[in-house]
Amino acid sequence: MRTIVLLLTCALAVGAAAQTEKKSDAKKAHKMVAAADSNLQADLVAKEKALYDAWAKKDGKPFEEWLSPNFVGVGDDGSNISREGIIKSVTTHNCEVKSLNISDDKVTPIDKDVVILTYKVDGDAICDGKKSPPIYASSIWKKQGSKWWTIFHQSTPAAPPKQQ
Q1: Cα(66)–Cα(149) distance, integer angstroms
Q2: pLDDT tens per residue across span 25-35
Q3: pTM score > 0.70 for this model?
Q4: Using CA atoms, how far apart are residues 133 and 160, in angstroms rounded to an integer?
Q5: Which residue, of 48, 50, 90, 159, has the fewest CB within 10 Å?
């Protein structure tokens, strides 16, 4: 019986140490991202803003430059959109854009080479004859070599204000 208690105690100690190590690894990853590039959030927000500006001008070049070859996007309807699908939609959309603004941006590290960027986009845009609502968006950026690529993006239109 004493042996069983000793084994259980050891197993619990190992499990607790592993859990502490996982938390420690996550903190280290966060610190590595912050230390490696203190301007990472500003750089990625600038890239996202450039992508939105290119979208407004129907310019697919920045999307070719910053979307990973294995990029996946999620459309408003929940559909998966490939890199090629995004580039095609950028160059053929039916929107008139006067201004766009990114706010409430936040970078959350996943590890030293992967982060999630979340933010809100609003501005003055008319798509298919309707004013575009603000959107909430997230992108996953991955560093490969010395370059950051977006490997995933989704955006969700804000719900219209409730009528009183």
Answers
A1: 5
A2: 556 655 554 54
A3: yes
A4: 8
A5: 159
